[in-house]
Design a protein that fits this description.
Blueprint lengths: L6 E2 L3 H9 L2 E6 L5 H12 L3 E9 L3 E4 L7 E4 L3 E8 L9 H22 L1
Antiparallel strand pairs: 1-2, 2-6, 3-6, 4-5
């Protein structure tokens, strides 16, 4: 099941769900079902999955112009999101690198603020 491509959804809502309720959000292929998603997450991240919820987000209608031509109405592709709930105690390290970067930036700004006040 490692051949199923799981892209973590990086958003504020996804981050909040991962920290508070142990739910992780992945963008998966539209033809994937809940069992294949569960097996893929368990195989790739070595965790226990208790629940999988899926939603298909319809593609947005957009208009584009190409070199002064008339606007063309097109639809973006549909995407499928999987909300994966893990067993208590399990976690996936998706946002840790982002947290480390933000903590380093905060530490640098605090040091620069202290230097300016002296």
């Amino acid at each position: 099941m490692k051949d199923l491509i799981l892209k973590p959804r990086m958003s504020e809502k996804a981050y909040q769900q991962s920290t508070t309720s142990n739910v992780y959000v992945f963008v998966v292929p539209v033809d994937a079902n809940k069992m294949t998603i569960k097996k893929a997450v368990e195989a790739q991240f070595d965790v226990s999955v208790t629940k999988v919820r899926t939603v298909i987000q319809s593609g947005k209608a957009v208009s584009s112009r190409h070199r002064r031509a008339r606007p063309i109405k097109v639809n973006r592709a549909d995407i499928k999101k999987a909300y994966v709930t893990l067993k208590a105690g399990d976690s996936i390290t998706i946002f840790e690198s982002e947290e480390e970067n933000s903590n380093k930036k905060k530490a640098k700004t605090k040091k620069s603020e202290k230097a300016e006040t002296k």
